[in-house]
């Protein structure tokens, strides 16, 4: 069988993204389907997670699969020195698909090259988080009615935030205009700005974060400063609260604006924003279930037609 891993979002064409969003829409209509009876999904989390792991496991359970895995590598034989290669080969003996989060950039790619079963990248260091991107795209599509020609403002830790890196790459098909709002220490890395240039994507950089800067936004994508990626914790302390979104900053924003955040939030969205109808981050996380049902099915070779024909 062709290895159908999902390692990086740039592997998805525009057509594939739209196809996956259609499949997510089917699962939103009816999340419980016995499409994966007798399948085993392994979730290997070498880093902490709430949403990604639990929504993948919920997706597997709602599709009739069984779930094995770990949430703490200290209780596995990797703590005795077992290599990632051997761990992946062992789990491939037991499971039909492996969902893996790892602290090393490139770990998912490596796993996909050695595993006989599909690998789904649930986040590799500061690199990519493609399943998050699919739920972000689904959330944008649901709230804006389109993915085309949107003003997308990314705020906070654009250096280490893997979700913004993946989203930027996926949006290349849809003519976005990006606004990157970050302090100098956490600016969008040059490689992603070069990516924008190569794909003729307009982008603007800002240091200020206020009601005037965000007045034209369709999507305001807030991010947490990624404490776990800093080698210098003094630098983290300097930047950790640099941008906080308060409800009164939304007074000039467009009616269609929606506020997204991959979560967890720490301080960057004040709780007074939660009751604003433009706040969408809780529903966004719920969309993760449908997007991840689609991803698990796709890597196991189950098609949109299979899902539509499932009664
Ligand atoms: N968005 C996200 O990846 O959340 P978790 O770290 O809780 O999985």
Query: SSE order, as H and E?
Result: HEHEHEHEHEHEHEEHEHH
Query: Which fold does the CATH topology of the largest domain refer to?
Result: Rossmann fold
**Overall helicity:** 25-40%
Radius of gyration: 19 Å
- What is the CATH top level name of the largest domain? Alpha Beta
Oligomer: single chain
Distinct compounds present: phosphoric acid mono(formamide)ester
Distance, first to last CA: 27 Å
Structural class by SSE content: alpha/beta
| Total domains | 2
CATH architecture field of the largest domain? 3-Layer(aba) Sandwich
Describe what is shown at a glance.
This protein has 311 residues and is an alpha/beta fold. It is 36% helix and 14% strand.
Task: Pick out its properties.
311 residues, 9 strands, 5-stranded parallel sheet, binds phosphoric acid mono(formamide)ester, globular, 10 helices, alpha/beta, Rossmann fold, 4-stranded parallel sheet
């Amino acid at each position: 069988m062709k290895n159908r891993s999902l390692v990086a979002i740039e592997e998805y064409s525009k057509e594939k993204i739209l196809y996956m969003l259609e499949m997510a829409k089917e699962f939103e209509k009816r999340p419980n389907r016995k499409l994966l009876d007798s399948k085993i999904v392994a979730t290997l989390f070498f880093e902490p997670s709430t949403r990604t792991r639990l929504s993948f496991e919920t997706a597997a359970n709602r599709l009739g699969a069984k779930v094995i895995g770990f949430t703490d590598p200290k209780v596995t034989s990797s703590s005795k020195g077992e290599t990632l290669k051997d761990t992946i080969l062992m789990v491939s003996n037991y499971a039909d698909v492996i969902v893996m989060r790892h602290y090393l950039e490139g770990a998912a790619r490596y796993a996909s090259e050695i595993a006989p079963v599909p690998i789904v990248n649930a986040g590799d260091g500061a690199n990519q988080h493609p399943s998050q991107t699919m739920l972000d795209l689904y959330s944008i599509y649901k709230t804006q009615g389109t993915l085309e020609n949107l003003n997308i403002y990314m705020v906070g830790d654009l250096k280490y935030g893997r979700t913004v890196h993946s989203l930027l790459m996926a949006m290349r098909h849809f003519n976005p205009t990006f606004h990157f709002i970050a302090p100098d220490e956490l600016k969008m890395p040059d490689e992603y700005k070069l990516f924008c240039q190569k794909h003729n994507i307009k982008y603007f950089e800002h240091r200020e974060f206020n009601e005037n800067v965000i007045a034209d936004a369709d999507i305001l994508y807030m991010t947490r400063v990624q404490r776990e990626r800093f080698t210098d914790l003094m630098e983290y302390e300097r930047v950790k609260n640099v941008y906080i979104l308060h409800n009164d900053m939304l007074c000039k924003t467009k009616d269609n604006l929606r506020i997204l955040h991959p979560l967890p939030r720490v301080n960057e969205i004040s709780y007074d924003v939660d009751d604003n109808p433009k706040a969408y981050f809780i529903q966004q996380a719920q969309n993760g279930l449908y997007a991840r049902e689609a991803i698990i099915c796709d890597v196991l070779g189950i098609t949109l037609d299979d899902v539509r024909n499932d009664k």
